[in-house]
Amino acid sequence: MQKYAQDAIMYQNKTLLSELEPGDLIEFPRGAYSHWGVYIGNELVSHLAGEEDDGINAAMRPEHLFTISGVKFNKAKVSLQNFWDIVEDCAARKNNKRDGSWQPLSREKIITNATSRLGEVGYSLIYSNCEHFAKWCRYGVSKSDQVENVVTGLAVGGAAALTAGIVYAFAKFWGASAEEEEEKNKRKQ
């Protein structure tokens, strides 16, 4: 069964590679997150990646989450690599889904963006990750839907917890008041 799955992933990746056009964004699902790059052509991908790994299993430390006074950390750099060296065992996919709401730049400008920052070092999970870089190359907008989804989830979860706490406090207060009133009525009788 595992051999079949590996063959299916290999077939999907070969098919994807044959269909990609320069300037397309490639998403490399890694489980809990996705790594992103920009297809340059000739099986080459420009991406922001750590030298040891591009994500969860990398030497991620808390200081990589934020920038300090706008300074990024030396965790990753913009590199040009062969598609097969990046894809590992995941089923990569073309992801230009923002084309419907954002205007993609010309293919020439996307390639220029993707290659103009080669060797540039700097990383912040929240402000400057591989998805920020890829979307900046294609759309001129540095944005990470993954980060925004996590932040939104945390905000919704926090709001739900706050609401539950308020409901609990009111229930406790009103429940106690009702019990006290009932107790007073019993004493009067």
Automatic annotation (TrEMBL):
<dbReference type="GO" id="GO:0016410">
    <property type="term" value="F:N-acyltransferase activity"/>
</dbReference>
<dbReference type="InterPro" id="IPR007053">
    <property type="entry name" value="LRAT_dom"/>
</dbReference>
<dbReference type="GO" id="GO:0070292">
    <property type="term" value="P:N-acylphosphatidylethanolamine metabolic process"/>
</dbReference>
<feature type="domain" description="LRAT">
    <location>
        <begin position="25"/>
        <end position="146"/>
    </location>
</feature>
<dbReference type="GO" id="GO:0008970">
    <property type="term" value="F:phospholipase A1 activity"/>
</dbReference>
<keyword id="KW-0808">Transferase</keyword>
<comment type="similarity">
    <text>Belongs to the H-rev107 family.</text>
</comment>
<protein>
    <recommendedName>
        <fullName>LRAT domain-containing protein</fullName>
    </recommendedName>
</protein>
<dbReference type="InterPro" id="IPR051496">
    <property type="entry name" value="H-rev107_PLA/AT"/>
</dbReference>
<dbReference type="GO" id="GO:0005737">
    <property type="term" value="C:cytoplasm"/>
</dbReference>
<keyword id="KW-0443">Lipid metabolism</keyword>
<dbReference type="GO" id="GO:0004623">
    <property type="term" value="F:phospholipase A2 activity"/>
</dbReference>
<keyword id="KW-0378">Hydrolase</keyword>
<dbReference type="Pfam" id="PF04970">
    <property type="entry name" value="LRAT"/>
</dbReference>
